[in-house]
Specification:
The protein contains one helix and seven strands; from the N terminus they run αβββββββ. With about 120 residues, it is an alpha+beta fold. Keywords: Signal.
Length: about 120
């Protein structure tokens, strides 16, 4: 019985550890960002269509939240979820005397580059 338990723990560890390693790598990329909001995604639209489900990002796609604020996707990533919670992260960047904010949106286990 001990051998079975040991094998189970080993297999479980091998299956779970890569997930934690990816999560740590993803979080490492977010050092210096501040959580600025938690919002529910209400709908999205782009030049061709729109929908009331979240289907990930495409360059230029506008993501609209329940409070009628929005962010625009700056990259592509597919994900299908109905009215998910989005965590908005920002980091102030100053260059040549001008400041702007880099914006990330986290939905589930995906991180998207966004712009205001």
């Amino acid at each position: 019985m001990k051998i079975f338990s040991l094998i189970f723990v080993l297999i479980f560890s091998l299956a779970v550890l890569p997930t934690y390693a990816k999560l740590a790598d993803d979080f490492n990329d977010l050092v210096g960002y501040t959580i600025t909001a938690s919002k529910t995604i209400n709908r999205w639209y782009d030049d061709e269509k729109g929908n009331d489900t979240f289907e990930g990002c495409d360059h230029g796609r506008v993501i609209v939240f329940d409070d009628n604020t929005s962010l625009t996707c700056a990259e592509y990533g597919y994900q299908y979820v109905y009215r998910p919670t989005a965590i908005i992260l920002t980091r102030k960047i100053t260059s040549k005397g001008k400041s702007f904010y880099d914006v990330k949106m986290v939905v589930g286990d995906e991180i998207y580059d966004m712009r205001k």
